[in-house]
Design a protein that fits this description.
heterodimer; A: 272 residues; mainly alpha; MetI-like fold; 14 helices; B: 293 residues; 2 domains; two-stranded antiparallel ribbon; globular
């Protein structure tokens, strides 16, 4: 009762909440309903027949069985390469003093300063000549573009935030540099780095623009397959079931990374 | 100078210098190779069209673009959509950000959650969800018909408003995030002082808050502008076949029409369109970095 009274004191908040809920969650609800329907005749508000009939059908499709492992493999490879080349750079940016470090750090903003698809077209023109179109290598390269800024800026901010007095204390009592890095520096940056890794993996998994431009016709990732399923939709449920399944990595990220993905570390990835 | 004359500190500094360049070289070269090189090469190539078998400087590519009715229509349509999307985003997100900043209500927590939720919905899933929601015989149409009996629903799917709705949906979290970050820097006591001397809500907003969040508004504008001009998936799936936004238009020119040269010119035109906004974005981020350093 007192909760209801409190709600009554904030009519504007309730208005925003309801409006946002309809706009943001409404589309998601229709996907969920479609995924669990066998038949849904217009104009029924809810599916006319519920069931899981289409789930097994969806996952028996050869194109899906091919695209899913490919997408997971690509995301894994891109994240791995990105981490291997970007994390040492982030450490250098945060902890080493060198001429032009500001400039080099800021130069990665270039990844955000171009309209994305226009940039991809110019890359595709070069890849066409190098015969990289329709190859896995081509897709890996174009998907790496997306990851650089996040993978450098978020870990750089994290390395900068490390408490140096702890490291110095450990060095004073005779710990080796390697041991200090391993046991004192690393644990402090792990949350931010895992957030960056997760963002990169999930972002790459859903990356569509580069994959469709460079990957087709030979390399067909899950989102690209989804694109064609949407365009020639014979069975509505395929798209719905695929949407829900594809959404799992993102939902897991939402669940696990809520704390690590504070607004601040997210904002660092946009250069704010 | 031989190394032996350097002090120990200087020595370690030179050494770490060398290591630092080594550590940053891989991502830096990748960035140059995949962004700076293709972009500059395209700008140069489109300015050097092939005439009678030889390449020379000339504006033929651009003249061809601007004398083609479809290309110009698509360009104007893209700019028009971008303006509409950014205007809508500010109309929707500024009140939300202000609410989040100044309320003490518990509902704020849920409002923030909802506003950031689209961050975790990939574009491809959103496109599908919106088709089922606002599309013909979709949930929205059914809902309106069942509850009110009204049958005049016209779907925005495959119309200009379709891609606008999709891109607004996608742009909400970043806009709210950036604006809330800006509003967090507005000091409480400034607002209280203004209230004490009798300033009204609108006056406080226009004369105190707005000037203080100028940079955040600029970043929100720039990120959305670049995002919309460089968008592909949502306009491709939700927007009309004609006129097209630049993203799908370029893809069609490259992939279906098989004319990479024309696609390249279209890409460089999107660069030119957003060069000023891109510059503002980078400058603002550079300033932010310098202030923090």
């Amino acid at each position: 009762m007192s909760f209801l009274r409190k709600l009554g004191k904030d009519p504007f908040g309730i208005f925003i909440f309801i409006a946002l809920f309809l706009f943001i969650i409404g589309p998601m609800i229709s996907v969920i309903l479609w995924a669990f329907s066998v038949q849904w005749r217009y104009p029924s508000l809810l599916p006319t027949q519920w069931g899981l009939k289409f789930w097994s059908q969806t996952f028996k499709r050869a194109d899906i069985l091919q695209a899913l492992p490919l997408s997971l493999f690509l995301s894994l490879i891109v994240t791995l390469i990105s981490a291997v080349i970007c994390l040492p750079a982030a450490y250098a940016f945060a902890r080493l003093k060198f001429r032009g470090s500001q400039f080099f750090l800021l130069s990665f903003l270039a990844t955000n300063a171009f309209p994305r698809f226009g940039l991809y077209i110019t890359i595709a023109v070069i890849f066409l000549k190098l015969n990289l179109v329709s190859t896995v290598l081509g897709v890996v390269l174009i998907q790496l573009v997306n990851t650089l800024l996040f993978m450098i800026w978020i870990p750089t901010a994290a390395f900068k935030g490390v408490d140096k007095s702890l490291e110095e204390a450990a060095l004073d009592v005779g710990a080796s540099r390697f041991r200090v890095f391993w046991q004192i520096t690393l644990p402090q940056v792990i949350p931010a780095i895992s957030a960056a890794l997760m963002l990169t993996f999930v972002g790459t998994f859903y990356e569509t623009q580069g994959a469709i431009l460079i990957g087709l016709p030979g390399v067909r990732t899950m989102p690209v397959l989804m694109l064609s399923l949407i365009n020639n939709q014979l069975v509505v449920q395929y798209g719905a079931i695929l949407s829900l399944t594809l959404w799992i990595p993102s939902l897991l990220m939402l669940f696990f990374a809520r704390r690590a993905l504070s607004g601040k570390s997210l904002a660092a990835g946009f250069g704010v | 100078m031989s190394t032996s004359t350097l002090t120990k500190k200087e020595q370690s500094r030179t050494k770490s210098n060398w290591i630092a360049y080594l550590l940053i070289s891989a991502p830096f070269f990748l960035m140059v190779l995949l962004i700076v090189y293709p972009a500059s090469l395209s700008i140069i190539r489109t300015l050097r069209p092939e005439v009678n078998g030889t390449r020379r400087f000339g504006l033929e590519n651009y003249l061809a673009f601007f004398s083609d009715h479809t290309s110009v229509t698509n360009l104007v349509f893209t700019l028009w959509s971008t303006g509409a999307i950014i205007a809508l985003l500010f109309i929707i997100c500024l009140p939300i950000a202000l609410y989040l900043r100044f309320t003490e209500s518990r509902i704020a927590h849920f409002v923030q959650g909802l506003a950031l939720f689209p961050l975790f919905v990939p574009g491809i899933i959103l496109a599908y969800a919106l088709i089922r929601f606002i599309g013909p015989n979709g949930l929205l149409e059914t809902f309106i018909e069942v509850t009110t009996g009204w049958q005049g629903y016209h779907t925005p799917y495959l119309k200009p408003s379709g891609s606008i709705i999709g891109l607004v949906w996608e742009g909400i979290p970043i806009t709210v995030l950036v604006l809330t970050a800006g509003l967090a820097q507005v000091p409480d006591n400034l607002i209280e002082a203004a209230r004490d001397v009798g300033a009204g809500r609108l006056q406080i907003f226009f004369q105190i808050i707005l000037p203080l969040i100028g940079r955040s508004m600029l970043i929100a504008f720039a990120l959305n502008f670049l995002g919309v001009i460089g968008a592909f998936t949502l306009p491709y799936l939700l927007g009309p076949a004609a006129p097209q936004m630049m993203g799908p238009f370029m893809q069609r020119t490259f992939y279906n029409v098989l004319n990479p040269d024309a696609a390249e010119t279209q890409a460089v035109i999107t660069f030119l369109l957003s060069s000023f906004v891109g510059f503002l974005y980078v400058r603002s981020a550079v300033r932010q970095q310098k202030e923090e350093a």
